[in-house]
Structures are given as C-alpha cells and as structure tokens.
Automatic annotation (TrEMBL):
<dbReference type="InterPro" id="IPR038765">
    <property type="entry name" value="Papain-like_cys_pep_sf"/>
</dbReference>
<comment type="similarity">
    <text>Belongs to the short-chain dehydrogenases/reductases (SDR) family.</text>
</comment>
<dbReference type="InterPro" id="IPR036291">
    <property type="entry name" value="NAD(P)-bd_dom_sf"/>
</dbReference>
<dbReference type="GO" id="GO:0016491">
    <property type="term" value="F:oxidoreductase activity"/>
</dbReference>
<keyword id="KW-0560">Oxidoreductase</keyword>
<dbReference type="InterPro" id="IPR002347">
    <property type="entry name" value="SDR_fam"/>
</dbReference>
<dbReference type="InterPro" id="IPR051122">
    <property type="entry name" value="SDR_DHRS6-like"/>
</dbReference>
<protein>
    <submittedName>
        <fullName>Uncharacterized protein</fullName>
    </submittedName>
</protein>
<dbReference type="Pfam" id="PF13561">
    <property type="entry name" value="adh_short_C2"/>
</dbReference>
C-alpha cells in the first residue's frame, strides 16, 4: 500500500513491529492457542517462532477480557480504485487483520476481492437497508472484533443521493434524501442494534461510524447533509454509553475534503484534470496544504480500532479545515 508514511521503509518496519504483537491495541505474545488456529486474526507464523496466538488481557471496568480474532466486518461501500472505505480496508490488511467487506453489489464485492488479491480479504453481499436480512448476515459473521458502518450508497442514483450533501434545499429530492439516510444513518443504527441485541461484536471490540465535517459547519447549501452527519455525532455518543456494559467502544471518524470517486459521481467540480486541479486548490487552502486521499483518512480508522481508551470520540481528520 503506497502513501506518504507507508512509502517510507523505516516507518513501515516500525509499524510492523508495533502492529504484530497486538490484537488492535494491546496484549502480550504469551497467550495459549485455543482449539486449532483462529478463524481470523494475525498471521503469527514466523514471529518469535514459539508464539502461535496473541491474547489480550487488558482490563475494562475491573474485568479481564480477551479476544483472538482481528476481523473487521467492513460496511463501507466503495470502489477498489479509491475511497475512504478502500483505504481503511487496505490499512487493516496491512496490519494483518482479516477483513470482510459487505456491499449490495455482488459484482463490486467480487471485483474488490479479486483485485486486492489478499487472502485475508473476504466479501459478502448484503443490503443494509434491509434490516432483517442484514442483521442475519452480521450474525453469521460473528464474533466480529471491529465493525465499521456504511459511508454511502452505490445505487444507480448515487449522483442524486450524494448531491444532498451539498445542494440547495429547494432542489432537494426527498426520496433520494431518504435513501441516503437509509444507508448512512439507519445503516449505522442497524449495526448498533445488532451489537446490542445479538452480541455480534466481541467484548473489547469496537464499532466505528463515519460522519463528516459538514455537521460542524454545513453552510447554506448543506442543511440536509449537515443534519445527517450531525445525527451520527449524537448516535455515536449514545451508543458509546449503551454498549459500554458490553465493553464495546463506539467512535466516529469525521473526515473533511477527501479525493474519492464520489466527486466523479456528483460532477460538481468536473472530472479528470479539472477535478484534480480543483481538489488541489481546495487542499492548498487548508492548514496542512493538501487534499487527503482515502489512505490519509484510513489512519483515523486504525486509531478507532486500536485506541482502547477512546469511546464516544468524534475523530476529526480534515487537514485543519474546521479551523478556517
């Protein structure tokens, strides 16, 4: 996986040393193997030779707990060529997690799994807007250590659905608005319900939602999209309290401007070179001086998965955009 930090060999070696001995956030290489090998987790072969399983014996609320899987039931709907979900999945694979992606498009699932070509990446077909069948799918994947909720929809009407994030309310198509809410907002709620009712997430695991900085400063043309993202702020904090008794952390990644395929779908800043130039210009106005890619935002998801002292957190990663 290429990227600013990941392209540096010394940084990569350091990350490998940090990542291998842990199951997303802590633990020593001294745990006995359960019956056989785990169905998901780190590839322990060749590491310390005598170690066959990593266990986590941290304490939360005075009670010891452990888990051996490192599976992320990844709800992001994305293209294998770009996107926040794609960056998060690759970053987790880089840290030897077993990742499961779910999409309503069988073709997309097959394409992503084949093109990435990592044996730790698996795909399932499911529609988050169909509550009963989607929860059954999640239950079939349980126990899941780290679950991420939907970003957006890849329906044929994606252009209209995503345009509600930025567009005058006078021109809003509320049927399209309801579709996007059904995926991003209610999809997150369905994942929370499954975690609360059916214990699909392991004790000590996490649920990560995705919002956007439009919730903080929506502007006059993003009242609906801003409200959608703001609702996820409240859901994050409420679920963090509700799932705490199950020792499940809940956090929310809040990205700003990101160069992804959604810009092509929306068509608001052109395509090709024109789009690249406009994104570059937007990025130069940020304190960091550049526009993020999915790989940059992936760091926030790694933090959400591994930072076991973080729950109810709104993890803003926007290049300093909210400071303007």
């Amino acid at each position: 996986m290429k990227g600013i930090a990941r392209g540096n060999e010394e940084v990569q070696l350091a990350r490998n040393k940090i990542g291998k001995p842990y199951v997303w956030g802590g633990g020593d290489c001294n745990g006995p193997t359960k019956e056989g090998q785990p169905k998901a987790g780190f590839d322990c072969s060749g590491l310390n030779e005598h170690v066959t399983q990593y266990n986590d014996y941290r304490k939360w609320g005075g009670t010891s707990y452990s888990y051996n899987d490192a599976q992320l039931g990844d709800m992001f709907y994305y293209s294998h060529n770009s996107g926040i979900g794609h960056g998060a999945a690759l970053a987790l694979l880089e840290h030897r997690a077993h990742v499961t992606i779910i999409s309503s498009s069988e073709q997309r699932v097959k394409s992503v799994v084949e093109d990435v070509g990592n044996p730790n990446l698996h795909g399932k077909v499911g529609n988050v807007r169909e509550e009963e069948s989607f929860i059954e799918l999640l239950r079939s994947l349980a126990p899941i250590d780290h679950l991420g909720t939907p970003l957006c929809s890849t329906a044929s009407t994606l252009k209209d659905s995503c345009s509600i994030i930025r567009g005058p309310i006078a021109e809003a198509d509320f049927d399209e608005c309801k579709h996007l809410f059904g995926v991003k907002f209610w999809g997150a709620a369905i994942c929370g319900k499954a975690a609360a009712k059916y214990d699909i997430i392991s004790s000590g695991g996490s649920l990560t939602l995705t919002s956007g900085t439009g919730a903080m400063n929506p502007g006059k043309t993003a009242s609906i999209g801003g409200a959608l993202n703001a609702g996820l702020f409240t859901m994050t904090q409420g679920l963090a309290l509700e799932l705490a008794e199950k020792r499940i952390r809940v956090n929310c990644v809040v990205p700003g401007i990101v160069s992804t395929e959604l810009w092509d779908k929306m068509g608001t800043i052109g395509k090709g070179d024109e789009q690249a130039q406009k994104l570059d210009a937007m990025g130069k106005k940020l304190p960091v001086g550049f526009c993020a890619t999915g790989e940059h935002i992936a760091e926030a998801y790694l933090y959400a998965v591994r930072a076991d002292y973080a729950t109810g957190s709104l993890i803003t990663i926007d290049g300093g955009g909210v400071l303007k």
